[in-house]
Write a structure and sequence with these properties.
- It contains 17 helices and 13 strands.
- By secondary structure, it is of the alpha/beta class.
- Among the domains are: 33 residues, no CATH class; 206 residues, Rossmann fold (3-Layer(aba) Sandwich).
- The strands form 3 sheets. It has a 6-stranded mixed beta sheet with strand order 4-5-13-10-11-12, sandwiched between helices.
- Helix 10 crosses helix 11 and helix 11 packs across helix 13.
- The radius of gyration is 21 Å and the shape is globular.
- The N and C termini lie far apart (70 Å).
- The structure holds ligand F0G.
- The site of ligand F0G has 23 residues, from helix 6 and helix 11.
Length: 431
């Protein structure tokens, strides 16, 4: 048996090359399912370690996604793969940040170091490769910004027509600029992200466009490799916690699937716990978690972390499954907590965009609440690059944000063309 698509709710199966996003029978979300029982005998830690650092002549195995091809898309013809390459992102450990959150062992995996500056590249290489495999010529997504930057870049590389739907406000300027620069058709719609996603899904069927939002299960196959690579970087030791921001919940869902599969093929012998962190103003998963996932209600989203300004996450059911499988938790953090955590990460010299800082803010909150123990090993995922949202940086440090106070400001100094004035400024600051 090769790979198939399978409904997570009713179990209905579909051929891997059927153009379908949700189950025809019950509307449930689809998983890509590989024949792990056969794959298991062809892989081991040494195989993946041997591919580390491989040079471009080893393409596609020099990619941090396709290094794990056997667990991402085993039967795929390598010639179809569209890769920049992605992944191979760093795992950082800073005592300043450990002290700030109260952890003895905190790593941050910086997915902002991907080719277009966010983790979305890992999913996009999977999704665009499948678009080629299906012979699709046009690909589209609705996006808070990062998915569109990734889609635009990979569409250009694959020679496909890229189309992106943005909401007409709140898209961080770095992301908008990328999509325009890479040559995608950019459509600004007078509607929020949740509505934009509905519109893309409706139009795609009619117009023969392949949808590359995270409803597309091939995106999640690529994103699984964040977990594979993290655990490989820890010499195949499993951390106690993985902490990740939650928006449309594709990443959290893919992490749960990745961890269960690593366990199933015997590459790890226990699972870390997953902590999904949402912005308080965009926290439908957190609210459902509060009632034991008895009841889900979408909400109108508002947060300074525009990447996760999502009120009706499409992967809700998969994220709940991931949380159940990993004995996970959900926490929420305010915009103030997000921006202060971001200022700490930025000042450490690595930087990240606002949504990413949920990982640090959430870790701090969960340690303070006694849910994460200070001696436990934590890996926080930083999802996007600091340059994605330069306005957020400048507005925070000049203390001009609406509901956020700059608790860790790095003030800009304005001076005239006057050497004495500048000398005095420098002397008083450097003393
Ligand atoms: N962090 C960043 C920087 C993001 O761009 C996103 C999602 C998330 C976190 C949340 O990840 O949706 O998998 O839970 N951005 C999407 C986009 C929605 O359109 O770029 P998720």
């Amino acid at each position: 048996m090769g790979s198939i698509l399978q409904c997570m709710d009713c179990g209905q199966q579909y051929p891997i090359n059927q153009l379908i996003y949700t189950c025809d029978h019950c509307g449930g979300l689809l998983d890509v399912r590989h024949d792990l029982a056969s794959v298991k005998h062809t892989i081991n830690r040494e195989l993946f370690d041997a591919r580390l650092g491989s040079n471009p002549s080893k393409t596609p195995y020099h990619s941090g996604v396709w290094r794990y091809k056997e667990l991402v898309y085993p039967d795929l013809d390598e010639k179809l793969i569209v890769t920049r390459p992605e992944g191979n992102t760093n795992l950082y450990r800073f005592s300043s940040l450990q002290n700030w959150v109260g952890s003895e062992c905190l790593y941050l995996k910086h997915e902002g170091e991907n080719p277009t500056g966010s983790f979305k590249d890992r999913g996009m290489t999977g999704g665009v490769t499948q678009a080629r495999s299906l012979g699709m010529k046009q690909i589209a997504c609705a996006s808070t910004g990062n998915t569109s930057a990734a889609l635009a870049s990979y569409a250009a590389q694959a020679g496909l027509r890229g189309i992106v739907f943005f909401q007409n406000s709140n898209v961080a300027i770095g992301k908008l600029a990328q999509a325009v620069a890479y040559g995608a058709m950019c459509v600004r719609v007078d509607a929020d992200f949740d509505r934009n996603l509905e519109l893309v899904r409706e139009l795609s069927i009619e117009l023969g466009i392949y949808v590359l939002n995270s409803i597309n299960p091939f995106r999640l196959e690529g994103q699984k490799t964040i977990m594979f690579e993290t655990i490989q970087q820890l010499d195949w030791n499993v951390p106690d916690w993985i902490v990740v921001p939650g928006g449309n919940l594709g990443n959290s869902s893919s992490f749960g699937k990745a961890l269960c599969e690593l366990f199933e093929v015997g590459l790890i012998d226990k699972l870390p716990r997953l902590a999904v962190i949402q912005a308080a103003g965009a926290s439908p998963l957190y609210r459902a978690y509060q009632n034991g996932f008895e009841h889900f209600e979408s909400m109108k989203a508002h947060t300074v972390a525009s990447a996760i300004k999502i009120g009706n996450p499409v992967n809700y059911a998969k994220a709940v499954r991931a949380l159940r499988d990993t004995n996970g938790v959900v926490e929420m953090v305010t915009d103030q907590e997000i921006m202060d955590a971001k200022a700490m990460i930025d000042a450490s010299g690595i930087g990240c965009e606002p949504a990413s800082a949920c990982s640090l803010a959430g870790t701090r909150k969960l340690i303070a609440a006694g849910i994460i123990h200070p001696s436990e090993t934590v890996v926080g995922i930083l999802t996007g690059h600091v340059l994605k949202d330069p306005d957020a940086v400048v507005n925070y440090h000049s203390n001009t944000m609406e509901d956020v106070v700059a608790n860790h400001p790095n003030l800009l100094h304005d001076v005239g063309d006057d050497v004495q004035q500048i000398r005095t400024l420098l002397k008083s600051n450097l003393a």
